[in-house]
Amino acid sequence: MSEKLRELRHRLQEIDDLRAVYNLLNWDQQTHMPVGGAEARGRESALVARLEHEKFTDPEMGRLLDSLVHLEQERDYDDDDASLVRVTRRLYEHATRFPTAFWSHLFEHSSRTYEAWARARAEGDFSLVREHLEVTLELSLELAEFNRPWEHVMDGLTWDREYGTTASQVRRLFGELVDGIVPLVKEIAERPAPDDSFLRATWPRQEQLAFAADVVRDLGYDFDRGRLDTTRHPFASRLSRGDVRITTRVNEGDLRECLFSAIHEAGHAMYEQGVAENLAGTPLSRRGASHGMHESQSRLWENLVGRSKGFWEHRFSALRDAFPEQLAGVDAHTFYRAINRVEPGTIRLFADELTYNLHMIIRTELELDLLEGALAIRDLEEAWNAKYEAYLGVRPASASEGVLQDVHWYGGTIVLPAIIGGAFQGYALGNLIGAQLYAAAASERPALDEDIAAGRFEWLHGWLTEKVYRHGRKYLAPELVERATGSELSTAPYLAYVRRKFGEIYDIRV
Q1: Looking at 265, 295, 302, 367, which residue is catalytic?
Q2: Residue 229 is inside which H or E element, if any?
Q3: End-to-end alpha-carbon separation of the chain, Å?
């Protein structure tokens, strides 16, 4: 290893350690920190974030990367050192594009907008935040300009989260999803719904947590390098390759929240735990190939595995042993149908597996219209309601459960560059990628469904580690999808999966 490369890795390790400290402060704040520590924690977190940014944008970092650019030209694209220089240089160039004055203005405005949103949501009155959001749109367009060149303005906002996937590709994929999902949802609405009344019982907290921990351990989450805690808004947090923590939320009136949130976050965490050790301490080791790729793992484990018929053929007896009174007279098939009940609603956080993508698509389509100038902020509330009626057959009763339900467009600390655009599309892309990866895995191992029904998850976990996890951020998401599955991202595997699954549950010919 050359002296320059050694110095680069040393600098990046320090930056990675600062990010770990920041994540630890955030994890503690959302799990165990007393309320009285909030003011100091904000100051501490801001200090660590500033130090991390200053170290990464140090001009010496740029000179060091320039001196190593030859590695990209001389070595194979797959080479780890060439990849390290390529990805780090891209991130450095991005981080140094924006004037400090712009960021100051942006965050000051976002802070005011968040406060206005909180009032507007409480009162159900979009007009209270409308003017703020108009400024946010202007700032978002300005932000995109710093990221030129791009094909579409949204590409200038999703630069980091979905780099390599363009707005035109997203629009095409989402159009195919709408055409495939909306008719299925309408057909399901005409069929008798599975009985899920038994789920509305009392499920003791500790028993829920113990069962969830057993499940994620069996799936492959390594508790020697992680832990499970509770919080209001579940998340996974990577401090290092040897310390990737997950959280879940417990609702004693609904078993599903704790269990499926734990599986979801374990999917994120297994991705981080599976990154190759030689990438540790560098930008290649964090956040995966993209937001959508990371979501593909949480969605794959939560839905394609955790909500599958085979999984509950194996696991239901243990669940009934943990909750004998609540599940008296209930069998595995009844439970499977209940947790997969399709019920269109206005709130995305409570959406079932099938309709969830429509919530994401609605938001992304509105973002595209706003950014293109086809939709004005003053008309956003009505446009939101009209799309819900067209796609899901429901209409929000108020702005609070409609255009104001999510903080994303109004928040003051949204991870840049997603002020408008970028956050929502990744969730739907994750569902598509997860289904395509699972289909590819099943084509290599025809007995995969039998493995799951027998409680054997080692092969699938190993396949995903080899094809996805170990590479970290080394490849762009489209590259990784094609390397793992042999074809570019398509809606076909996902649509085939949901038609087969929900066609069987609702007795619909597919």
Answers
A1: 265
A2: strand 228-230
A3: 57
Q: Could you tell me the two tokens for 289?
A: 């190939």
For the record, the structure tokens of 160 come out as 């980091």
List pLDDT tens digits, range 159-201. 888 899 999 999 999 999 999 999 999 999 999 999 999 999 9
CB count in 10 Å sphere of residue 504? 13
Residue 235 scores a pLDDT above 80: yes
Length reported for the chain: 510
Q: What CA–CA distances, in Å, run from 239 to 16, 29, 58, 95?
A: 9, 14, 23, 22
pTM: 0.94
Indicate the burial class of 219 (C-beta count within 10 angstroms; 0-12, 13-18, 19 or more). Answer: buried
Instruction: Determine whether 131 is an active site residue.
Output: no
List 128's β-bridge partners, or say none. none
User: Residue 271: which of 433, 486, 439 has the closest Cα?
Assistant: 433
Instruction: Encode 241-261 in three state secondary structure.
Output: CCEEEEEECCECCEHHHHHHH
Rounded to whole angstroms, how far apart are CA atoms 26 and 392? 36
List of residues 6+ apart from 260 with CB closer than 8 A: 302, 306, 307
| Phi and psi, residue 410, nearest 5° | -120, -5
Residue located via tokens 């540790």: 280
Query: In the structure, what pLDDT confidence band is assigned to residue 118 with cuts at 50, 70 and 90?
Result: confident
Across the chain, mean pLDDT equals 93
